[in-house]
Amino acid sequence: MKPVKIKSNLDLFDITWRIILRCNYDCWYCKTDWHTKNEGNTPDVDKLIKGADKIIDAYKQIDPNKQIRMTITGGEPFLVKDLDILITHLVSRDVHFRIRTNGTGPVKVYKNMAKVMDKSNGEIMLSWHVSDPKSEDLYKKIPELVFQNVPVGVRLLGDQKFGREVDRAEMFLRNVGIPFEMVRVTDNPDDEDWDT
Fold it and tell me: What pLDDT is stored for residue 135 in this prediction?
C-alpha cells in the first residue's frame, strides 16, 4: 500500500496510491503487478487510514505549505469496504483527492460517495474500458451521475483494437459535456506513458 507514483511542482504533491490489488476486470493491457482478478485480501480501512496519515505526515514535513492531492486507485478501490471512511478522513486532513474506478458499482454508491466528498474538491474518475462489455452500462450511468451532481470525470482508455467503440464513447462524452481525457492503451503496459 505504498504510493506508486509521486509528482511534485511548486504548489502540489501529487500522489497516486494503489490501495487494493483486487479488481473485477481483467484487462489485457493492465500492468500485471497492478491487479489480481477478484483475488487477494481487501485491506482494512483502519490500516489504510494509518497508511494515509504516514504519507500525509511525511510530505507535510517536507513542505507544510504544499497541497497534497491523492489519486486513490487499485485494482478497484470501491471493492474496499468502508471506503467512505477513508475518504472522510482524507477530507478532514485537507487532502484533495480523486478516486479512479472502473465504474461498475451502482449509481447509489457514487452518489453516497459524493455526499462524503461534498465539502472537498474530490472527484470520481471513471476509467472507461470500452473493450469490456460491462462498460456498456456507462452509457446509462454517466448521465445519471451528472444529473445527481456527482463530481465525475472520465478517463477513456483508447484501445486501438476497439476504435469504433472508442469513437462512439468519445462522441457520447462530448455530447453529455462531461470532462474526459483520452488515455493511450499500448501493447506494453510497462511503458512510462501508460498509466492505468
Answer: 83
